[in-house]
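Field log, afternoon session.

UNIT: design team B
ACTIVITY: writing a sequence onto a fixed backbone
BACKBONE:
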């Protein structure tokens, strides 16, 4: 067996209840840190005006031909209502909106501003539709579900979670290395330098960071399948409907977890300079 793998297995075998608790808390706060990072990528950003300066489409009015039969209108109503990009559809008589008009009107609210342009194009192609009118938001563009104060709070939580993760990691390494101190002194007596022991502690941190990132990956994909199975999600969960975005965020968090875990391992390795780990304490 590879000497490094043997020593790494022995180091993991030295984990006791107290050190396991500290490492579990370390992994928990590392997981929360990665979760906050993922939130910034998955929560929709504020809607901005399009290239022509227009605001997002808030409502679509579909003018129907007065020659359409009631059965055709009912069938079209049911087809449009079943679409995932339609949040709400209401039938109104044209005279309610314009006294000189005739026929009926479908008043449609898109599921999201981003889906509205494609929906308008498809509605214009339907048989029996004489006109499609876009009603845009009269005020400010739709804003992100995360307000400025919430984003500031999330940024602060990044600092807090990293600090707590480092705190519990140092306590965990202190307990672990104390249990492994006899083996460390034997390694030092046999001529193995401290630099050969450092990768062992870094390996523990990388393992914790990898497991935290892997757990977040699994949870994100579970949430993805739950959200898409529920039809049209709330705006704050729209980012979870994109499998490509979920994969990208998961990959970034997995790599970030490994890197942070390695840095935390180096932080724990700083304890090896203590006198109790020297060959002759």
């Amino acid at each position: 067996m590879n000497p490094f793998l043997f020593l790494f297995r022995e180091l993991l075998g030295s984990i006791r209840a107290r050190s396991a608790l500290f490492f579990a808390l370390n992994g928990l706060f590392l997981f929360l840190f990665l979760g906050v990072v993922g939130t910034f990528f998955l929560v929709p950003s504020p809607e901005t005006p399009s290239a022509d300066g227009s605001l997002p489409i808030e409502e679509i009015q579909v003018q129907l031909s007065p020659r359409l039969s009631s059965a055709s209108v009912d069938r079209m109503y049911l087809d449009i209502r079943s679409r995932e990009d339609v949040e709400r559809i209401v039938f109104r008589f044209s005279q309610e909106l314009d006294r000189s008009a005739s026929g009926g009107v479908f008043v449609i609210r898109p599921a999201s501003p981003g889906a509205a342009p494609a929906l308008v194009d498809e509605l214009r192609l339907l048989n029996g539709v004489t006109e499609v009118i876009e009603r845009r938001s009269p005020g400010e563009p739709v804003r992100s579900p995360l307000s400025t104060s919430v984003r500031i709070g999330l940024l602060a939580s990044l600092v807090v979670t990293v600090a707590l993760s480092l705190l519990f990691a140092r306590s965990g390494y202190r307990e672990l290395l104390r249990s492994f101190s006899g083996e460390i002194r034997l390694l030092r007596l046999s001529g193995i330098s401290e630099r050969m022991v450092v990768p062992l502690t870094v390996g523990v941190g990388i393992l914790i960071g990898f497991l935290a990132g892997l757990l977040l990956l699994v949870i994100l994909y579970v949430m993805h399948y739950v959200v898409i199975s529920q039809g049209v999600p709330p705006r704050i969960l729209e980012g979870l409907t994109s499998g490509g975005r979920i994969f990208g965020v998961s990959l970034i968090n997995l790599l970030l977890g490994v890197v942070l875990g390695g840095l935390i391992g180096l932080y724990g390795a700083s304890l090896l300079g203590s006198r109790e780990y020297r060959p002759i304490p």
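LOG NOTE: The two ends are 30 Å apart (CA to CA).
NEXT ACTIVITY: expression trials, pending approval
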